[in-house]
Write a structure and sequence with these properties.
This protein has five helices and nine strands. By secondary structure, it is α+β, with helices and mostly antiparallel strands. It has a single domain, classed as SH3 type barrels. The strands form two sheets. Strands 4, 5, 6, 7, 8 and 9 form a six-stranded antiparallel β-sheet that branches. The protein has a three-stranded antiparallel β-sheet with strand order 1-3-2, with no helix packed on it. Strand 2 and strand 3 form a beta hairpin. The two termini are about 30 Å apart.
Amino acid sequence: MTQTYPADPALYWSGDSQAAAAQAPGGGETLWPAVPAQPAAAGSPAEGRGGLDISNPVSVEATVHPMTNAEAYDSSLKSLLARNTGHFIVATFQLGTDSSVVWQGILHTVGSDYIVIYQPEHDRYISGDVYALKFVEFHNSRTVPYHAAASQWRGRRL
């Protein structure tokens, strides 16, 4: 089941994403979020996963012993998140030493030390500290999956 949202992509997507809106069949609404500006190359591993790019773009040697800042960034968690902006995620953040909270939504923005998750059902944005981020569940969907729409959007404490 696909959910649709008002056809104003600026409402859901930052202007620097250069995303083009994808029209919903038979309606004037747009599926959120829009298609990325740079689709996966034909035959690439990301193509079979709905556009997710979860592969490491650098070699194992460059991951363990990066020679440049670009290699260090490309093999980082921040790079993984940035490559998958626009996909539905479930993020677990560590609170203190024995507690965590889970937030789900569309990965909207990745900053130098934070991420922003958009929750379209409540039209709100949740920001979180990337250093407290422990686990991220990536979904092939660029819309809210049916099972997630049926559950609560509040942060769940574990």
